[in-house]
Design brief:
Number of strands: 9
CATH class of the largest domain: Alpha Beta
CATH superfamily of the largest domain: Periplasmic binding protein-like II
Shape: globular
CATH architecture of the largest domain: 3-Layer(aba) Sandwich
Radius of gyration: 28 Å
Length: about 450
């Protein structure tokens, strides 16, 4: 009987220990599984702090309000929102990083993931919002690392009232699909009473980063032309498209049509906008961001004419406006997994939440890269870009395929010398080719 009692006690202990062991094993497995889940799945109550930076100083207040609205919808995420001052040459990302802070989500230029910040961003290729856009920006490995925050475009900005008067009716900007037709339009504008139809500003970022990169759009993938230049396999001087854009530049900067033709180089940005805004001139080369300067004097009657490259009306380059992402949001590899997930939620909020959609388009007047956003910008130049996208009348934003800092600082002065007739077009070709041979 005693033996039976002892045996029974032993059996009970074994069962008890086995049960405890099973409980511990299950707990251990759950803990292991928990570490493999995404931070968002670990705990819905987890508190996360993130820093987000905005490079568009003109939407500083909207950016701050967006952070507040996002936090209201996501109470477990605390957002510190920073904005770069307009005209500041040192990015807010660089300033915060230098101070020891880790920026979770940073706004930067589209060329940054293959140049200055090539090791910064995480792969966003599998994010759902890619279904709503074709503008995700890739790094050198082909991974989408850039969330397209803003779509912008550039071309020949025109004062609609002035041009309508010159042509005697409602002007169709896409009717100007050859250089000769453009020249005819300039002559009509002169005949209507304007001595100088064009106010051609010649800041280096404009004549180089924007205007002088357009030739790379002759390839379906502009980066192939850039690669050929790096390999020394692209002869600019003999290339018809490259020469064509400079033939048109000669027309824009000419004494016959340009307000500043006698002295084409100068700080003409403000004066050019004033002239076109007031209707003293009709056309300038710029982007949709120019509206803020134009509307101050003349309201909202402006649009875009494509920059003609030759006299072939069927050339796609003559029938399209350059457009694409000009600011992207990139999630920092150095941020914690929880912070990265919180940043992904912010991007989803911009794309899918009504508050985020409203912030992007209505509040910030940014042309959305996402086709599911139902809002339309009221800025007429932004609206012209959005309409051109819908109509299939856009080509890539060429500046996104080059190092914009180099094109402004290194090549810009040579483009200016060409405009001032201090160097030949052949000299300019050699300068650009020489630059790219050093980029191997």
């Amino acid at each position: 009987m005693k033996k039976m009692f002892v045996l029974l006690v032993v059996l009970l202990l074994v069962v008890s220990l086995t049960a405890c062991g099973g409980s511990n094993g299950a707990g251990s497995t759950a803990a292991e599984n928990k570490t493999t889940n995404s931070p968002a799945e670990n705990s819905k109550d987890e508190k996360v702090n993130i820093i987000i930076t905005n490079g568009k100083g003109e939407i500083a207040s909207q950016w701050e309000q967006a952070a507040k609205d996002f936090m209201a919808a996501n109470p477990n995420i605390t957002v510190e929102a920073y904005t770069q001052a307009v005209g500041d040459t040192l990015s807010v990302l660089e300033k915060l990083t230098a101070s020891g802070k880790t920026v979770t989500l940073a706004m930067m230029a589209p060329d940054a993931p293959i140049n200055k910040h090539k090791d910064f961003g995480i792969d966003l290729s599998k994010e759902k919002w890619n279904e709503e856009t074709i503008y995700g920006v890739k790094n050198a490995n082909g991974e989408i690392v850039g969330f397209p925050f803003s779509i912008e475009g550039f071309g020949l900005v025109y004062n609609k009232q002035v041009v309508d008067k010159a042509v005697g009716g409602s002007f169709d900007p896409f009717s100007i699909n050859t250089r000769d037709k453009f020249k005819e339009l300039l002559d009509k504008i002169k005949a209507s009473g304007l001595k100088y139809p064009i106010a051609y500003q010649t800041e280096q970022w404009s004549i180089s980063n924007h205007y002088s990169t357009q030739f790379i759009n002759q390839a379906e993938d502009p980066s192939t032309v850039v690669q050929q230049l790096k390999e020394g396999k692209f002869d600019l001087a003999s290339n018809a498209v490259w020469n064509g854009y400079y033939d048109t530049m000669d027309l824009l900067a000419s004494k016959e049509y340009n307000k500043y033709g006698e002295r084409p180089l100068g700080q003409y940005y403000d004066d050019a906008h004033l002239a076109v805004g007031k209707g003293e001139s009709a056309i300038l080369f710029n982007g949709n961001w120019a509206f803020d300067s134009l509307k101050a004097v003349a309201g909202d009657t402006f649009g875009f004419i494509p920059v003609p490259v030759d006299n072939n009306p069927d050339n796609p380059l003559n029938n399209k406006i350059a457009a694409g992402p000009t600011n992207i949001l990139v999630i920092n590899k150095a941020a914690t997994p929880a912070q990265q997930e919180a940043a992904k939620k912010f991007l989803d909020w911009i794309v899918y939440d009504q508050g985020g959609q409203d912030f992007l388009v209505n509040k910030s007047q940014v042309v959305s890269a996402f086709k599911n956003n139902p809002n339309k910008v009221t800025n007429p130049l932004g609206a012209a870009i959005a309409d051109a996208i819908v109509q299939g009348k856009t080509m890539p934003f060429s500046s996104n395929f080059v190092n914009v800092e180099d094109w402004g600082n290194i090549l810009g002065p040579d483009v200016a010398k060409y405009i001032a007739k201090k160097i030949s077009r052949e000299d300019l070709a050699k300068s650009i080719e020489g630059y790219y041979k050093k980029q191997k």
